[in-house]
Amino acid sequence: MNIVLTGFMGTGKSSVGRRLAERLGLKYADTDDLVEARAGMTIKDIFGRFGETRFRRLEKEVIDGIISSSDGLVLSTGGGAVADDSTRRSLRSWGTVVCLTADVETILKRVGSGDERPLLDGADKREEAEALLKKREAAYRDSDLMVDTSKNGAEEVIEKIVRFLSSPRPGKGGSP
Ligand code: S3P
């Protein structure tokens, strides 16, 4: 079994992912951590020195590597990973894709100053977040399950995912 957590920055993918893996007895990996390890620098530095295109290439390489060699994993992905159509298709065929969501208010509160997140480092973070959310809406919807984390605490979110995983599913398809 593989579970992929997708969703915008600040929706709680890493904290939910770690705890979900523990709960299910699966391994845990985070594409942002793997990209940083591969590049030997922080995501902020990759963006700053080489730009987003280079970051996306590394992100895709990391995800392709996991898909072709790993199993029994909860994988948290960076917020923009599923915006790439082929990556999203690969992730969907590799595992159950769960998209975590949150309202803009919550996202902005969670990302705080946004120093670590190059795509939310402008003067108007709300505008940046709203524009990106709009652009990625369809990609996020293309998932097996969507869970709101604005009002649900981590335990409730995990409970909803576990319930979904253990319920009979005739086939893959969006589930609100
Ligand atoms: C990004 C999200 C970040 C990180 C990078 C780009 C995005 O990950 O991959 O800054 O494009 O939304 P988190 O979603 O874990 O913050």
Q: Short description, anyone?
A:
The chain has helices at 13-24, 31-39, 43-50, 52-69, 85-94, 104-111, 125-141, 154-166, and strands at 3-7, 27-30, 73-76, 96-101, 145-148.
Q: Any overview of this molecule?
A:
This protein is 54% helix and 13% strand. By secondary structure, the protein is an alpha/beta fold. It has a single domain, classed as P-loop containing nucleotide triphosphate hydrolases (Rossmann fold, 3-Layer(aba) Sandwich). The longest helix is centred in the middle third of the chain and has 18 residues. The C terminus is likely disordered. It binds shikimate-3-phosphate.
Shape: globular
CATH topology: Rossmann fold
Mean pLDDT: 93
> What about the largest sheet?
5 strands, parallel
What is the strand arrangement across the widest sheet? 2-3-1-4-5
Number of strands: 5
Rounded to the nearest angstrom, the radius of gyration is: 15 Å
> What is the N-to-C succession of helices and strands?
EHEHHHEHEHHEH
Q: Give the terminus-to-terminus CA distance.
A: 21 Å
Secondary-structure-derived class: alpha/beta
Which stretches are poorly predicted, pLDDT < 50 over at least 5 residues? 172-176
CATH class: Alpha Beta
Bound heterogens, unique: shikimate-3-phosphate
Q: Architecture, CATH level 2?
A: 3-Layer(aba) Sandwich
- The CATH fourth-level homologous superfamily: P-loop containing nucleotide triphosphate hydrolases
Treating each run of at least 4 consecutive H or I residues as one helix, how many helices?
A: 8
Task: Name some characteristics of this structure.
176 residues; alpha/beta; Rossmann fold; 5-stranded parallel sheet; 8 helices; 54% helix; disordered C terminus; binds shikimate-3-phosphate
